[in-house]
Amino acid sequence: PRPMKEDNKSRQQMWEERVLSYAVAKNDSDEIYVDGSKQYDYVFDDSAMINFTSDVEDTVPGGEDSSEGDEESDEEDEATTKYAKIQEAKKSLPVYHHRARVMKAIQDNQVLIIVGETGSGKTTQLPQYLVEDGYTQDGKYQVGVTQPRRVAATSVAARVAEEMDVKLGREVGYSIRFDDKTTPGKTVLKYVTDGMLLRECLTDPDLKKYSCIVIDEAHERTLATDILLGLLKNILARREDLKVLISSATMNTAKFSKFFGDCPILTIPGRRYPVNVHYTLQPEGNYINAAITTVFQIHTTQATDGDILLFLTGQEEIESTREKIEQIASKLGTKIPQLIIAPIYANLPQDQQALIFEPTPENCRKLVIATNIAETSLTIDGIKYVIDPGYVKENSYVPSTGMTQLLTVPCSRASIEQRAGRAGRVGPGSCFRLFTKWSFENELEMMPKPEILRTNLSNTVLLLLSLGVMDLLNFPFVDKPSIPALTKSLESLYVLGALSNRGQITELGKMMCVFPCEPEFAKVLHTASADEKCNGVLEECLSIVSMLHETTSLFIGNKRNAAARIVSETEGDHLLYLEVFRQWRDSGFSRTWCQDHRIQFKTMCRVRNIRSQLSRCCQKLGLSAQSKTAAIKLSEVIPRITRSFISGFPTNVVQLTNSGNYKMLGRQTGALTVSIHPSSVVFQNYKENAKKPDKYLLYQQLMLTSKEFIRDLLPVTQESWLTETVPQVYQELLGKRQP
Ligand code: CDP
Ligand code: MG
Fold it and tell me: Does the Cβ of 155 fall within 6 Å of ligand 1?
């Protein structure tokens, strides 16, 4: 193994000199500390310097597309407007040089696969070419471009609107769940999440309003993308005028071609500079600490002309890492150049997303901390260093137990190669992999596993059934899900009442598909309005369900502190959320109320928007908020809410054991023990308020980190609520037969 760089010695010295008061992360220890009292003393922890071996990656030199001259013109014409600059930038993209070839291929083929490096212009340019070449027939048709991620759909639409010099939401728009920025009759180019286009199939099964569909980021193989590919295969046979483009990063494309009857694959040669790949010498026990150390190692020893991109797995990890880095950077003060930290993940509010694209000021460095959204969907210019711990958060579903967990797992080799490529877009770069070369070569899967093979299929099966796809086994899947997975999903749809015992979709099932939320939540709302024993609590359930969509960025700081300002005591998280919404509404949806109660105002505005969409949907379906009997007593409200949630999430229930733990119930998981997440008010009730633990709890989320945690919890205080609401599951399970 070679040292980090040839001039390792001097780098090491720079690192030592600059990191004056910096006590660094030790592997395996959770604490990163900066000792303020040693501000001017020299502290250097040798073991904290991560040693990398170096390995120069295969590179594709500029080739026919090297047109760097376009990008940087020395004498900047002062009259050059932003718009003109954008037009210049467009011409420098690889796809621009292949426009004629690509458009000819589209003309000649109904389906075409387009492969190119990330950043070559597939997402932003190709759809514009389609519009410019008249595929929308002056507004008669639309061009639809799918994205697996909401953030990508919105940010790309904004960029393209800017490029076309139109207002976002007019000619160019986007449509994501709970947020539609398009103008009927005006929008010709629409970026849409794959899940939303799938929903559009419900009302427009032939996708008649589109002349071209671009399935972008197809290599991600999300569930919705896979199902769309299957549906499109059938639609293409019915609509000869429809053009379908499958756009993908450079992996796995032969499979798509085979799926669409060996359709042509068009490759756009990309521009990519060499990327120097480094590995750690030993496996890193704590990749967060290793990542932080590497950030400072780069930042303190390298010129500020290149930004850093760090891949982490999710929002919480990103935010806590950002805090630690900010702390260290503030201690170091002016000894180091300014570090601008720009996080990006799916739930990041839109107004904060723009920061990742802002040019970095002189003598500063930008650190983008991203989920794998930055792997291929978003191209961030100016990245020279990539730090890759090699992990990703993935759904993992076990059909035999019916359990879905979000797990942090090692990435595939294909993903890791993509990530490294992000460092070589604007010039030669470096990638620091926080794992060993041996591990890369011997321990990783080659390709990511398609989502359809590792997820709960209930929602998809329900959607397919309501689209009239009866023969699930013969549906054209790119990768067929397993029969146990399909069977399990049919079973749970039956328990929800979405399917009859003959496997046919029920009225309730159809209704559940119409809601812009998961069928389980739709069932909750239906029960809260229509069920004999639960009706009359629709308003309450609408608030809770809407709040549950936005719990990740609800509280400013600690949830416990915020909660204490709202209610002195509450039985569970659902009721806390209900109270938050109620008080906020009573305050006239006030911004000040949010500030006073340590609640994110923007999040609450989104909740309000979700709530009004769900409420409108209920009205359309004739679900009434009125109680069917006389006014319900106050003491009846919580039991009715609880029963409604049991009806929607019949198997998300845990039971108290003799030893004082909770174990999963309603799933064949044996005695899997789970812990209550410390952020839950239930945790505080039991641990601090000495409340007697409830015999049953309903949970909304199951997460696996160091332990199995359940969060967002609703106590089920009466066993009869379980046996009466879901007799199919609980009568036998709890050994109770109702008379
Ligand atoms: O889809 P593909 O990865 O091939 O590239 P793209 O997303 O169309 O990006 C092409 C170029 O547009 C990138 O190199 C960025 O410079 C620019 N872009 C941008 O500046 N801001 C955005 N929000 C999106 C793209
Ligand atoms: Mg793209």
Answer: yes
Q: How far apart are CA 240 and CA 238, in angstroms?
A: 6
Ligand 1, atom 16: nearest CA belongs to which residue?
A: 381
Q: What is the mean pLDDT of residues 67-74?
A: 44
Q: Which atom of ligand 1 is nearest to the CA of 117?
A: 4
Q: Which of 439, 444, 442, 437 is nearest to 1 (CA)?
A: 437
Nearest-CA neighbor of 729 among 670, 650, 654? 650
Task: Decide whether any atom of ligand 1 lies within 6 Å of the 382 Cβ.
Answer: no
| Beta-bridge partners for 344 | 370
Distances (CA, A) of 299 to 94, 304, 358: 31, 7, 19
- Please give the full DSSP string across 162-177, using - where no structure is assigned: HHTT--BTTTEEEEET
Q: Which of 419, 473, 413, 474 is nearest to 449 (CA)?
A: 413
Ligand 2 centroid to 150 CA: how many Å?
13
% pLDDT > 90, the chain: 52
What pLDDT score does 399 carry? 66
429-433/383-388 β-pairing: parallel
**pTM for the full predicted model:** 0.83
Among 245, 379, 418, 422, say which to mutate for ligand 1: greatest number of ligand atoms within 8 Å of CB.
379
| Strand-pair partners of 52 | 280
Position 15 scores a pLDDT of 45
Q: What is the pLDDT of residue 459?
A: 86
Q: If you measure from the C-alpha of residue 377 to the centroid of ligand 1, how many angstroms do you get, rounded to a whole number?
A: 9
Q: Which atom of ligand 1 is nearest to the CA of 381?
A: 16
The reported pLDDT for the residue numbered 689 is: 81
Confirm or reject: Cβ of 159 under 6 Å from ligand 1. yes
H or E element at residue 288 = helix 287-301
Q: Is 321 in the pocket of ligand 1 (CB under 6 A)?
A: no
**Which is more confidently placed, 5 or 363?**
363
Report CA(265)–ligand 2 centroid distance (Å): 17
Range with the poorest average pLDDT among 518-532, 634-648, 721-735 = 721-735
